[in-house]
Amino acid sequence: MKKAQAFTQDLIIAVVIITMMILIFFSFYTNQNIGTENIENNVMSETKTITDYLTTKGYPDDWNSTNVVRIGFTDNDYTLMLGKLELFSNMTRDDYDKARTLLKTKYDYIIFFTDYNGNVLNITNQKFIGKQGINNTNIESLESPTHISSITRFVVLRDNNNSSVRIIEMVTYVWSKER
After folding, report:
1. Mean pLDDT of the region 84-97
2. Is the overall model pTM greater than 0.85, yes or no?
3. How many domains does the chain have?
4. Torsion sign (Cα): 58, 60, 64, 67
5. Coil, strand or helix at 58
6. Mean pLDDT of the chain
């Protein structure tokens, strides 16, 4: 075999090996990014779904802690139904995993209400409904989420005798620690 032929064969083998290594690297890199994007999309999707559920009456319409199929605590015009909100708040405090299952999410969440100045309201004797001990200021430091999503919806708050009506914000945070 001549020197030139040996050099050509070595070059072809080297190019094939380098090309395969580059393809393997980019295949792995792309799959890693797709996995991360899927988690991020799931967290965003579940935030929307949870918020959509909560801004309905729930199912059945007159649900309670023993017969609830889907949690919801507003009527058709987005007015908070304080009795159902209190039930949801108690359920979340007493059995967070059950509430999470009823919301059809595997991710952690908190829900809270703010006035037009951004002040967190204490509607159910609990400012933050969801994972205990978590709020909008400590979520990053205590949970270290890899993906987090929030949605804000406007809802109507009536006082008990319907003499006062306010439009407030319902804020929902959902997060994941998955990588």
Report:
1. 95
2. no
3. 1
4. negative
5. coil
6. 88
